[in-house]
Write a structure and sequence with these properties.
Layout lengths: L3 H12 L4 E7 L4 E6 L3 H9 L19 E8 L4 E10 L2 E9 L4 E8 L5 E4 L25 E7 L5 E7 L4 H4 L3 E5 L22 E9 L18 H5 L21
Antiparallel strand pairs: 1-2, 3-4, 3-11, 4-5, 5-9, 6-8, 6-10, 10-11
Organism: Takifugu bimaculatus
Cofactor: Zn(2+); Cu(2+)
Protein name: Superoxide dismutase copper chaperone
Amino acid sequence: MTCESCADQVRAALQGKPEVKSVSIDVSKEEVLVESSLSSAEVQALIENTGRRAVLKGIGGSERDLGSAVAMLAGAGNIQGVVRFLQLSDKACLIDGTIDGLDPGPHGLHVHTLGDLTQDCLSCGEHYNPFGRQHGGPGDAERHVGDLGNIIAGPDGRASFRLEDSQLKVWDVIGRSLVVDAGEDDLGRGGHPLSRETGNSGKRLVCGIIARSAGLFQNPKQICACDGVTLWEERDRPIAGKGRSKAGTDVPAANL
């Protein structure tokens, strides 16, 4: 994006959505700053529908930097994804993610206690539950802190979501893990013996360690040190798994 007419087209595409509150474009830096309730994947798609390519350089916007984190997810088959966490305030955490390769339908989403992938998702421990409560839904007072409810995968296998949670704190979950399950979490209401423990959402499909990350435009690097691809090369590669690095090895990408 190098001209004002390009910026005008991007601005028009974004401002046409009621979920977009404001758009700021700096042509000299080729940066677009969007304030919106849409997920980052939806914002990126709107920009790219104008014929421009886009990469996400962070999420943020609060006056105080209360912390941000990212989890790179990889699992069986072609399942892979990225989920970002941003602490908006002392009482609100934003969880924004895109996961591909899922079976269409709902899937349980939980933060687990351990950041241990030595046995894939089986070594992640139980749901993060520092107060010893029963399992529930994200809107319940009685729930595990790690209970984030369900995400919904569309017919193409993609789940794109943006959640706000009142109990999760970024500073408490860095170093733990995020897990997506095979089935729907019944939020503790299903009557099954596992309902009040795990939500009876089936086996663990995909997981990743939650790591500290830079906030909005705080990371200026152009090359990912973990696999040597540039920011724009990264756009054309899988977000995790085989084919991610130049050598074709299974190295997860760093947060750009």
